[in-house]
């Protein structure tokens, strides 16, 4: 069962509102705006799910997911990627993300995708 969710997005407005909404559904949410800090954070926090933006400065979401899926310790963490780009669904699929949601998204659609991964 998914309880701990780590969300990474460089847009702090999206990060904050998504976090608040998911907390209202009973999830324990951790927010990370800096993608360069994400991999060590995942190792220490051990989330049940990662929600990550694809297009970010420093370290792109697809690069992070590739790293996580190749590492035995983190390969089993489900990942939902999100973005407003047209190419993003293909990119998410190519790097091994478990699901994808386009921005802007409806919180009900996101929670349905989370429940489908439980």
From TrEMBL:
UniProt name for this protein: Response regulator receiver domain-containing protein
A Pfam family recorded for this sequence: Response_reg
UniProt-listed SUPFAM superfamilies: CheY-like (SSF52172)
Annotated keywords: Phosphoprotein
GO biological process, one term: phosphorelay signal transduction system
Record SMART domains: REC
Domain Response regulatory: 4-118
Modified residues (4-aspartylphosphate): 53
Organism listed in the record: Olivibacter domesticus
Domain of life from the UniProt record: Bacteria
């Amino acid at each position: 069962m998914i309880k701990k969710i780590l969300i990474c997005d460089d847009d702090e407005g999206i990060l904050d509102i998504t976090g608040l909404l998911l907390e209202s559904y009973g999830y324990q949410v951790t927010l990370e705006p800096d993608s360069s800090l994400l991999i060590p954070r995942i190792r220490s926090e051990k989330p049940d799910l990662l929600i990550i933006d694809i297009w970010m400065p420093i370290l792109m979401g697809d690069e992070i997911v590739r790293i996580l899926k190749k590492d035995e310790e983190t390969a089993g963490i489900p990942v939902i990627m999100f973005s407003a780009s047209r190419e993003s669904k293909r990119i998410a699929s190519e790097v091994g993300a478990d699901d994808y949601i386009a921005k802007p998204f409806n919180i009900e659609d996101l929670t349905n995708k989370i429940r489908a991964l439980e």
